[in-house]
Amino acid sequence: MSGHRVLPPLDHWIAGGTTLRVAHHRLFVRQDGPPDGSPVTLLHGFPTSSHDWAAVVPSLAAAGLRVTTLDLLGFGESDKPRRHPYSVLEQASLVEEVWRLYGIGRTALVAHDYGVSVGQELLARDPARVTRMAWLNGGLYPDLHRPVLMQRLLHGPLGPLLAPLTTRRRFAAALRAVLGREVADADLDDLWASASRAGGHRLAPRLLRYIDERRVHADRWAGALEAYAGPTLFVWGPADPISGAHVLERIRARMPGARVEELAGPPAVGHYPQVEDPSSVAAALTRVLTG
Predict the structure, then answer these.
(1) Which helix (H) or strand (E) holds 13?
(2) 266 Cβ neighbours under 8 A, 6+ residues apart
(3) What is the pLDDT of residues 197-232, one digit of tens each?
(4) Which of 52, 105, 109, 158 is most buried by its number of CB atoms within 10 A?
């Protein structure tokens, strides 16, 4: 056993949510905090689920925020259609439909990894809807994205052959390679359970097409990010080999007015700040989201 568990058990997280029919798909959604609280929407990354946020959500809810989390299509407890042409644009439309179903108008937006691309698309569509925004390690600038070997293989022509061969052990090894701090085996078990449920690990080559979408929409998405005038926070793990300290350099240069919380440790945090150091992430988010 490595480290102490930080995430509430996956089954407890799932029990607190519901499954909605959204545009012909079933999506897992949770609402936490007071119904009349200031809305905030959390978007998770690849290849896991909204459970990534489970150690952060209680603090946000206790601060009086109305927190919406969901498993994007192809992830976690949401539908995982096998031959679906997954796209960031569709994911953004599904988030907008969840907002409509829950009567959420303007909302703060917090995003990590894959969710960063979904968040940038939402921001580009309607920046006035976003009251404030916070970003955790992700490919904000595709030219700075440094995918690890397994991502490159799964995104390449051999992806459909390799994805079914993914095991819990290989998944854990790949995840630990992008972390800066130890994560408990029990937490890794739950992250794998979310990713692999209903054969979800087989979808990696299709889901990883978001890397191509980032390049297509790079100028539009970066422009929306840099032009946003509301409160902006970056909570960043500099030890992340994919989107770490090298991305922070550009963030500081392009958005000098933004608040940056660099989780430099020691030990420095890596790609999953909300799992590696949830207390610091929760404190940073609460300061900006309730300020």
Answers:
(1) helix 10-15
(2) none
(3) 999 999 999 999 999 999 999 999 999 999 999 999
(4) 52
36-92 pLDDT tens trace: 999 999 999 999 999 999 999 999 999 999 999 999 999 999 999 999 999 999 999
Question: Given the DSSP bridges, would you call strands 25-32 and 18-22 parallel, antiparallel or unpaired?
Answer: antiparallel
Within 10 angstroms of residue 4's Cβ, the number of other Cβ atoms is 10
Give the span between the Cα atoms of 151 and 159, in whole angstroms: 9
Dist CA 207 CA 202 (whole Å): 10
Global pTM value: 0.97
Q: What distances in angstroms separate CA 32 from CA 14, 62, 149, 265, one per listed residue?
A: 13, 9, 37, 30
CB count, 10 Å around CB of 261? 19
Q: What is the DSSP letter of 56?
A: T
What is the identity of the amino acid at 220?
R
Sheet (strand 259-262) strand order? 18-22, 25-32, 65-70, 38-43, 107-112, 130-136, 232-236, 259-262
What number does CATH give the domain 10-289? Answer: 3.40.50.1820
CB atoms within 10 A of CB 8: 16
